[in-house]
Amino acid sequence: MLAWVIQGVLSFLASIGFGIIFNAPRKMLFYCGFVGMMGWLVYFAFNGMTGDAVQASFLGAFTVALFAHIFAKRFRTPMIIFSVAGIIPLVPGGMAYNAMRHIVENDYLTSISYASQAFMVSGAIAMGLVFAEVIIQLIFRAGVGRRGKKTI
Amino acid sequence: MEDKELAIDCCLLAGRLMMEAGAETYRVEDTMVRMAGTQMLSSTHSFVTPTGIIFSPGSSYHTKLIRIKDRTTDLEKVALVNDVSRKLSTAEYTLEEAYAKLKEIEQANVMFPLWLQIIAAAIASGCFLILFDGLWIDVPIAVLAGGFGFVIVTKIHELTRVKFFAEFIASLFIALIGFAAIQGGIGTQLDKIIIGAVMPLVPGLLITNAVRDLMAGHFVSGLSKGAEAFLTAFAIGAGVAFVLSF
Known about the structure:
The structure holds 2 protein chains of 2 kinds. Chain A is mainly α.
């Protein structure tokens, strides 16, 4: 239980930190942190359950985009403000690092496996974002009626 | 006729500001076409890439091209421009007001102060160390290295204007700090320290935006953003690798 609280608080802080680096509007910083926390907790839960970083990243990114959309509709701002900071904890920095490290050590085979994993994870993050966006638009259009607004 | 020229300039300015602030390609195209639509310009087309915007305001006007030189991530600017475009389409602003407002946004410096950004980068680095299963004893080193790396990347970028060089030097220093801490006996896991401290430099936004643009059919922007992300990642990796190879 304590682990969950720690993970939640730290991912919240990290996302706010990135909100500041990316210069998100001041009033939105709290929501940036919230979006990042939800995304990371979903990732953490599924990664712990299945051990598959690709699926967990997909679900994490999906959650991030879902909340980002809800906040974007509520505050009438572009959704990118919330999603960018929220996505950062999911980015496969560790895998990319390991890939690079093994290249330096002339261990190309291991590095290829890390690199392809990193590629799959970033693909999964992008898929999660796009899927959530499409689904939200479908629901929104069905609920509010045709507005003919172009998405994606 | 005068009026339409102003409307075209207004669209171009909005597009350039958004692209320079790191908005998604589809949003920039969408905003420009929508703004043009409210100003009675019909059959407009805009073609946005990360390095330039081509905008054709119908058959009776000249097609315009605008160059984008510098790209940063400034989400507040995206929000402000978006707000102007929305108010223009709901007729809350007149065209002149909207143009003046956009000029104001172009001049304004809405970034957070540098010291706050450095602290944010440092804290984020410490948080990532724990999120990536690091040990609590390593947190101070990661905080130090992350903050220091961010200072270096900003200063060298200001000095040389070469982004990849700045990132290379910054990650080199991060790895050196981590390495020195291990040698000095105050750090334990070199890998985790470096990964945590390097996170503020990682091109996460570029990677995801690149794949999203590709999926949305914006192949030119997708590929060029992907190339930028790859070069950035390579610069960071090379800096770290340089230290690790000893």
